[in-house]
Amino acid sequence: MDELTELESLPVERLIEMIREKTGAGVNLSFPGKVLARQLGRRVRPRNQRTVKALSAGDEHGRSRNLVIEGDNLQALASLYRERGQIDMILTDPPYNTGGDFRYNDKWDQDPNDPDMGEFVGSDDPAKHTKWMKFMYPRLQMMRAMLKPSGVLAICIDSRELFHLGQMLDELFGEDNRLAIINWQKMTSPKNHDKGVSTATEYVLVYSKNSSLARTGRLTHSEATASSYKNRDNDPRGAWTSTDATLMGGPTHPGQVYGIQNPFSGKVHYPQVGRCWRNEREKMRSAAEKWGVDYEDRDLDDGLRPALVIKGVVDPLSPKVSKDPAVVAAREAALEVREGPWPQFYWNNSRERKTGEGELRYKTYLSDVAVGVVPTTFWADDDFETVDLGSASWEHEESATSDAGVKELNAVVGRGHGFETVKPLRLITKIIQLWCPNDGVVLDPFAGSGTTGHAVLMLNREAGTTRRFILIEQGRPDNGDSYARTLTADRMRRVVDGAWASKRKRPPLGSGFTFKSLEKKVDAKTLLMMERDEMIDTVIASHSSTGSRRNAVLIPLGDNEEPYTYLVARNASNEGIYLVWSGAGSNTDLTEEAYEEITEEAEAAGLADVYHVYSRRNLIVTDDVVWYQIPDRILSDFGLDVRTESFTEEG
């Protein structure tokens, strides 16, 4: 189908919308098939999510918090309608278009629900870039829709599709919402088979849904950095490190460039060329006088502002100033102060190790920077500078390497997994720390080996955070390997339980996850033909209390020794979710008898007397029942228009 035919098939409203976009400001990217690609997200059908208990892990609470979903990620995103607009961070590693790493089915241009997986796109395919963009564009649209207003997308890529991905993200998110382009060092030495310039780096493009609402956090200190803080003077404020008492900006802050006389030696010290004292004059005077010495202003004919000179000194520039009675008295006072905790601005020892006769220094306390290191444009060390990401470079010490990621995966699941490149935990944890709140939700639509989920659980254990994850992976079922099961879920189970493949004993990270597999398309006919266990999975996956989607996560209650007839789950308010459904053609109505048994089950389970009931019809009237009609309410909660059963982006 050519572009003209595609345009002719569009309704007038969509054509007007496209004209406005083309004539408006910002980036507009064109590629063959884009018109249809941008419609796919609206036409893909959500799927029923089938719980596979044997592949889930953790306790009841842990399973209710995290998800591993097996299936096509476009269909999975459509099926996660309850989470739409609720995700704090999307962190993902899509196919890089290296040849044979993704499939494309031309039928998807017309029907994104076509079950055929399509053919692998080879590196010699002349349309490989177009197919990759047609594959990615609707997924990026859906990812943006999943983010909350303050949400952030961080997406990994290499040089093959860097520019195409950047253009699509600029168009979908807006250039003003680009937070960073991170250039991380994936290897420490070039490969012999590389031709020309060896590729040693990859990229992470970071975009916000709304840059005015997004927040860039800080990173925890490395052990080496924290250990550099000492408390050699028993300061009650704790460990500190010695930093410069000056800052850059001498030419622009001439009022902060002058001499200060050292009370130990009598020598006048100045900021280095181009620098100035880090505080304004009166604060510097107060800091100097904390050494038990009074200062006065005096012009030293040095072309600078008046110096801070020890009061009573005859000639501060004299070679014999150390013998001046005022300096002798100042030295005695300063030595007495030095016996206790030193003031924050302190006089360092000289190179000859003479007490206090060196330059003026500043104590930076670990407690003041305990929230972590501020991200900077270069990540070679833990300097504390202002936030300025833009285009950032992370050396391998900061982000680890791809080889480190493979070794980490080997340690968890053993060798033979087939993954040659794996993102290292250090890279992923840094990104999560920077852009996901401590109690946020992280979504990875291309979960692969599960590094994102591993990083979330590791941070929760180490830092006491409560982040949740949703991982989506399909694998390659055509090869008999749905590694959503054999790798993604296996890795997550091992880190939850501590059952690593390596001989070294590892502590379990705890928590857990529920494994779900995408199955039937959700429509009215499919819903009405479901068996009870299928309907339970569908209700739990779709349930949304009005105005409270973020708190709609349900805890299933189906593992009792004596199964409930109606009770299937409870919500965060300790209210029960009840299903009156025994399968097509059987008991599906809320009757007086069913209501009485529901109240008895609620009392037995210790639940509140508010009853959320799903049924085909409601034959009673009572104020304590919140009723959800099957199939209409389920279709609505999946984002389907009940009248047309087509997916909508509203909500």
From TrEMBL:
DNA methylase N-4/N-6 domain ranges (all copies): 87-474
Protein name (database record): Adenine-specific DNA-methyltransferase
Region described as Disordered: spans on this chain: 218-242
Domain of life (superkingdom): Bacteria
One Pfam family matching this protein: N6_N4_Mtase
GO BP term, example: methylation
Enzyme Commission number(s) from the entry: 2.1.1.72
Keywords, ordered alphabetically: Methyltransferase, S-adenosyl-L-methionine, Transferase
Keyword check for Methyltransferase: yes
Alphabetized InterPro entries for the sequence: DNA_methylase_N4/N6, DNA_methylase_N6_adenine_CS, N4/N6-MTase_EcoPI_Mod-like, SAM-dependent_MTases_sf
